[in-house]
Amino acid sequence: MLLDQQALFSAAQAITATAVSTNVIDTGSSKDVGKYGDIPLLIQVVEAFNTLTSLTVTVQTDDNSSFSSATDVISMVIPLASLAVGYKTPVITLPMKLERYIRLNYTVTGTAPTTGKVTAGIVGGVQTNV
After folding, report:
1. Running DSSP on this structure, what letter comes out for residue 6?
2. Which of 10, 15, 76, 100 could form a disulfide with 120 if both were Cys (CB 3.0 to 4.6 A apart)?
3. What pLDDT does 102 receive?
4. Helix H or strand E segment including 54
5. What is the per-residue pLDDT across 45-79, written as a single tens digit (0 to 9) for each?
6. Among candidate residues 42, 34, 7, the one with its CA nearest the CA of residue 23
7. How many CA atoms lie within 13 A of 49 on its CB side?
8. What pLDDT shows up at residue 28?
9. What pLDDT is attached to residue 58?
10. Residue 49 belongs to what domain range?
């Protein structure tokens, strides 16, 4: 799978506490980025997690880069048993009606992990044959 640095929210981002993605994607417009078709989102574990109970990944959008009035648009809870190297979330597509800025929020449930990294971003397609 090809990843574009400009379309990544997280590039092997260590998640040791609740945090937002390292990067925010600025769509450059208030127009609906999802209007003309499915835009897939890849969320993949690149280092196994330990100790937490689950990790919730939420897609957030806002009309300003400080996310002062962020809206949660998609959320998924991933249990510890799934948070092994190579795990990819089921195919997620960005919904219509997003605002200009998009980021991910990672919420740790349970004990804060000492290991665990995620790479996540918008991709041209999600590889499903492995």
Report:
1. G
2. 10
3. 95
4. strand 52-62
5. 999 999 999 999 999 999 999 999 999 999 999 99
6. 7
7. 30
8. 83
9. 98
10. 5-122
| 104, 57 Cβ separation under 8 angstroms | yes
Q: What is the pLDDT of residue 83?
A: 98
54, HSE (Cβ side, Cα atoms, 13 Å): 8
Torsion, CA 130, CA 7, CA 17, CA 52, rounded to 10: -10
CB-count exposure of residue 94 (10 Å: 0-12, 13-18, 19+)? buried
Residue 99 corresponds to which amino acid?
E
Rounded CA gap, 69 and 66, in Å?
8
Question: What is the residue type of 79?
Answer: P
Residue 30: inside a domain: yes
Quick one: tokens of 115? 């290991």
- On whether the CB atoms of residues 101 and 68 are closer than 8 A, the answer is no
Q: Is there a domain that residue 84 lies in?
A: yes
Residue with tokens 């929210």: 9
Query: Residue 38 belongs to a domain with what CATH number?
Result: 2.60.120.1110
Beta strands 92-93 and 40-47 are: antiparallel
Residue 71 neighbours by CB distance under 10 Å: 13
The two three-digit tokens of residue 54, written as one number: 């689950």
